[in-house]
């Protein structure tokens, strides 16, 4: 999942220094490889395209729409028509199974597969690029959510943030201190991210993981104790004074401004890794910390527990690079995909854009150790390693829309009825007995 509506400070000069470590050198009069990218990190991605071009091919950037859903639609239309000009694709991990199942992705085999998902790749990221025992894409950057908060707010509430905290504790602490809890609860994909993480944090899943790759025959398991526990968290926030005014339409960007309000104690917020660089780039500029001292009041902790004592399962997202099965030069496209996902490329994306690596070695690199606090880097890598994926299904788009339709509005979520209603509808959608 990618972040939307956020302002990220981009250091283009730093991009040049970091990306300059790449082996490729741009410029050719031959093949052009089209790389369809999402809007995140465009400056660094353009630099990567130039650096990874060779004497044999040039990589040309083609920009996809901002919405993940619109990105999927545009790419799916091209690939369904056998488009040979779709060479490289930046894919949200949840769309990889659908594209692979349709035969739209050229697999990586042998040594190339080993390079794509060697032991350096974090488990949560590596899991997103396999389908039916094949490596069908390469992890470029990985995303996860952590709990961001004002240290002064947590201290005033008496929360020990060195220990695991529950959603219930966070909501109560914010409400007691006049603060808020920022989430993503609009009717869109990030709301499913929240629901899925809550359910997995209670020991359950939307679909049975052992049957999820069975497609329409997968077992729906959202109507469970874990589903009810997830609904209880959403209902508690909806009914509390900690819900932000735009709760039912909230997204990754809307809650950012409430962390450092002109008045008030600030907030707790679950959000993606881009947050740190976002606020760092806004110091004294409005919309963020007023000064360095206020920026130092920004804290971070592992994603909250759904159930006390049950280890949380932070969301997994990011971008995987796929190669179009109908490309005129699949071999060149595979080579280019490995280049734009190299450790040096991942370091550049992290330092310049706040888009974190899928490889552990990059977290340990001097570039990242200088750019981020060491404990934040460790939190990111552990959260990606131990995080929970959304259902890995070729029918994920239908699954997501079915869940959204029964869990939205979050103010109407009921632990006694919502999981059951969503299970009934999701089963009917998968079986072809109901339309979205």
Automatic annotation (TrEMBL):
Keyword Glycosyltransferase listed: no
Keywords, alphabetical: Signal, Transport
InterPro entries linked to this entry: Bact_solute-bd_prot1, SBP
Similarity remark: Belongs to the bacterial solute-binding protein 1 family.
PANTHER family linked: ABC TRANSPORTER PERIPLASMIC-BINDING PROTEIN YCJN-RELATED, ARABINOSE-BINDING PROTEIN-RELATED
Protein name as it appears in the record: ABC transporter substrate-binding protein
Native organism: Aeromicrobium halocynthiae
